[in-house]
## 1
Amino acid sequence: MRKISFMILVLVLIATITACGNVSEPTNSVSSDAEEITKASADASVAEENEKTQNASFLIAYFTMPEDVDTEGIDANSGASIVVEDGVIMENVEYIAAIIQQTIEGDLFQIETTKTYLLDHEPLVDQAAEEQEENARPELSTHIENIDQYDTIFLGYPNWWGDMPMAVYSFLEEYDLSGKTIIPFCPHGGSGFSGTVWEISNLQPNAQVSEDGLTISRNDVADAKDEIVAWVQNLGF
Ligand SMILES: Cc1cc2nc3c(=O)[nH]c(=O)nc-3n(C[C@H](O)[C@H](O)[C@H](O)COP(=O)(O)O)c2cc1C
């Protein structure tokens, strides 16, 4: 009888130990779940950080001047110097910059001046010619806080008198872009880039100025979305 009681006791003990073992399992699995969650959130924040770094490495800097254009009756079309898309009016350079940004997710930056420009076409043309003759450096009212975070700079400007607007000279002289890649883009009325790519290299001799920049006739900009996207994708980033 004592023997039987002892056996029962042993069996109860074994059952208890086994049960305890089972109880501890969920604890292990909770801790491994927690480890998984911690790892997943660490992975997510690394991915987020990478994404930020990736976004931050592209700067899309551009200069444009909104000429006074009668937009009445214009729909998804180019009024020479503007693009109207979904009711939003954009200058040609601004439009190309926006498509680049949508494609590659960089930071947009508009080069602006403290001085004002005349927005009617003819007076603006004269004003631009005057600035060029004077080799002026218009003072800029917008500045980039930390240029070092960017490896690649898309630089957009309209062709003005076969050259860049002088405000773009001011921009290129304000920063040291050594070691960075500069990719120009330029809508025009027939002159393409003129000598501007060389001019950029001259102002930033230690930057790599891409020969694969994009130049589009102002008459084609409104229909050039696919071309712009394909161009950005083919740059190999
Ligand atoms: C002051 C001025 C000068 C220009 N000079 C030229 C030129 O020499 N060659 C050319 O092809 N286009 C010239 N254009 C046309 C612009 O390059 C073209 O309209 C461009 O799309 C303007 O872009 P935006 O509207 O974004 O500023 C000139 C336009 C302006 C306002």
## 2
Amino acid sequence: MNNVFVYCELEGTTVADVSLELLTKGRKLANQLNCQLEAIVAGKGLDGVEKQVLPYGVDKLHIFDAPGLFPYTSLPHSSILINLFKEEKPQICLMGATVIGRDLGPRVSSALTSGLTADCTSLEIGNHEDKKAGITYENLLYQIRPAFGGNIVATIINPEHRPQMATVREGVMKKEILDTHYKGKVEKHDVAKYVQETDYVVKVIDRHVEKAKHNLKGAPIVVAGGYGVGSKENFDLLFDLAKELHAEVGASRAAVDAGFCDHDRQIGQTGLTVRPKLYIACGISGQIQHIAGMQDAGIIISINNDENAPINTIADYVINGTVEEVLPKMIKYYKQNTK
Ligand SMILES: Cc1cc2nc3c(=O)[nH]c(=O)nc-3n(C[C@H](O)[C@H](O)[C@H](O)COP(=O)(O)OP(=O)(O)OC[C@H]3O[C@@H](n4cnc5c(N)ncnc54)[C@H](O)[C@@H]3O)c2cc1C
């Protein structure tokens, strides 16, 4: 009762990275709240799925295994969460800010009148004093995210309603195994008790999943370009440097909007979050929405023709110059020095 729950997304029988990241965060929140961490998986053919989940410090895994539960459709998964939460009364529920999480989260929170904060960038535990009502609420979930176009960072709370629900994008939290032999309980539920036959009204006839064209999220080096790169052709310089460094190419939203680079390479608040060892920002000014997706990089190099560009304040090294003059030199000297 009143535990922290994480809904684990599945691709086939593999738990999504974003869910493992949230289990890691959920474990920390549960420790602070002195309660248990519980996880939910719903899919088909889930024998052994606990091996993927329990090592993240999960005290109890709820398994819903039935042919109609994969691929994901809205109604059966919503019914599972709504009915399980009516029994278990969690204080917190976390899920990925993915296509599935964005569909499932609002349905569940609306049915339970609980409230939901989407796309949180940080989750913390803290108190809140309602001075007007003279009430102090203890151990609330601070659901922290940029608001008003990123101009402020808002801390959102649900003092009265439970569960406190939040979605988080992939890559925002770090995933970390707690103990490979962590002893958690596994409960296999009778799916028919939670899902009605009519919930299976939508049948997925054909499903096409496109493979990611790059590995930006896991790349140790990212060469990212902004509007200052100037053109799609100039972006080729970034690809050339990336090839030499065995890096991946990322982009700011302005560069994506200008058509210099594909959307799936966008880094930032509404794109990917990356944590490479080295981030080379080329012609990127460093607005807060971009920084949100790369500020945890180990070393940041900024190449910019404006020495006062905001990104320079968080960069470890600043190269003052244009992308067109600096990148060809970097490629040339890197090649020379690694011969
Ligand atoms: C709700 C919301 C969400 C957003 N989400 C994102 C997001 O996920 N990711 C994101 O990136 N942005 C996001 N943005 C947009 C963000 O506010 C900025 O507009 C964007 O990051 C700016 O991109 P930029 O730095 O490439 O362009 P600019 O701000 O135009 O900066 C270009 C930089 O290039 C430099 N420059 C110009 N010419 C050269 C040259 N030849 N060589 C070297 N340097 C040069 C300039 O000095 C400047 O510093 C979001 C905005 C909103 C409102």
